[in-house]
Structure formats: C-alpha cells, structure tokens
Amino acid sequence: MNALERLARHAGKELEEASPIEVLRWTADTFGRRFCVTSSMEDAVVAHLASRVLKGDAPVDVVFLDTGYHFEETIGTRDAVEAVMDVNVITLTPRQTVAEQDAEYGPKLHDRDPDLCCKLRKVEPLEAGLERYDAWVTGLRRTDSPARAYTPVVGWDERRQKVKISPIARWTQDDVDAYVSEHGVLTNPLLMDGYASVGCAPCTRRVLEGEDARAGRWAGRAKTECGLHG
Length: 230
Ligand code: SF4
Prior knowledge:
This protein has a single domain, classed as Rossmann fold, CATH 3.40.50.620. By secondary structure, it is of the alpha/beta class. Strands 3-2-1-4-6-5 form a six-stranded mixed beta sheet. Strand 2, helix 4 (72-84) and strand 3 form a beta-alpha-beta unit. The mean pLDDT is 92. The two termini are 20 Å apart. It has helices spanning 3-14, 20-31, 45-51, 72-84, 98-105, 109-112, 114-130, 173-183, and strands at 35-38, 60-65, 87-92, 135-137, 154-157, 162-165. The chain has eight helices and six strands, in the order ααβαβαβαααβββα. Iron/sulfur cluster binds at residues 67, 69, 110, 114, 117-118, 121-122, 199-200, 202-203, 226.
C-alpha cells in the first residue's frame, strides 16, 4: 500500500462523520491545488461547497466532461457556473468529435455499445484530465442508487491511483435541496422538468414516480454507471 492509499484509508475512517465543508477543508489542506471537483452540471452544489474553502487567487478547479451529447441546458449550466461562481471551470473533451466517432464506429454507438461509447467519451478523457491531480472530488451520494450505497466519504481509487472524495456521500436529496435553497446554488433546469439525474441526452429520460434518481439513465439496459465510478 503506498502513502496516498494509506492516507485515503485513514481519512475515510476519520472523516466519516465530518460535514462536507470539513471534508473539503481537509482536502484543500492535504492536497493544495492537486485536487479538482468533477461536475456533471446537474447542479453546482459540490463546486459551491468547494468554492467556500478555496477562493480568490486560487479558485478550485471544476472539471466538466463535454461528451458532445449533452442537453443544451447542461451546457448552459456549465456556462452559468463559469460566469458567476468563484471557480475555475475546466472542460474536457473526447479525442474524437461525435462526427469522427460516427465515421469510425458507425452512428449511435450509444445505442449499440454504450460501454464503449462511455469509455471513449467519458472514461478516457477523465483519466487524461485527472493526471495532474492526486485527488478528485465527486458529488456521489449513497442514496443515489443501490450501487452507490457504500460510497466512502474518502476512498481509494485503485484504478487511477488517486484519492477519491465524496463530501456529500451521506447527504439525502432533502439535504441537497436545503443547501440549494439556502445558498441559491445553480441547478440544471432539467431537474425542474422531470429529470432526477442528468447525463447525455441519448441515454437519459425523465423518471417516473417511485423510481430511484438514476432510473432514467440508460433506461431499459443493465448499465447503471458510465465507468467513471466503477
Ligand atoms: Fe455515450 Fe450515452 Fe455514455 Fe454519453 S452516456 S458517453 S452518449 S453511452
């Protein structure tokens, strides 16, 4: 076990009960500028929390993956975050445009092989984008879905050999809603239009009453995650 992994495992126990702000203060104290927040631009809650810890001359890096398949509302949310928040938005793009991918693999790869499409358009660009950091911060929550029920507040990302921090892992949707309302945090307009979780347009639908928040992602398929968190 290397020193970074040891640090992650120790912090995971120490910070299990800590508030998101305490977790992010520890993150900034421990990693300085060598961490980023990743955001799908579903909302800017974690970016907002992090901006309270790192601000001014050294705003936090907020990394967004532009797959080329996003709803225009998601791109609009990214632009609004960039314009009004004290954060440094970094947009990562895949190696190929959608047109280039279509030419090589055929159109609508997302319908035929979504795992490959996610690998090309999400997993590989994120991995390249994370190279400069020792730690990454996510907005994962344990109540998102059964697959996320054991998300650690601080854990070890074995595949990428980085510390993975989920400061709002213990929050419920009510906690998120209360924070958004208290701080006037930017949210994706699609959340007010029946979408509970916002991903790429071809792979996201509105959720039905009683479904969990991620039921609208890759609906009708066994796939529940894009590979960023698996
Ligand atoms: Fe492709 Fe869908 Fe994955 Fe987006 S979510 S990268 S469109 S398979």
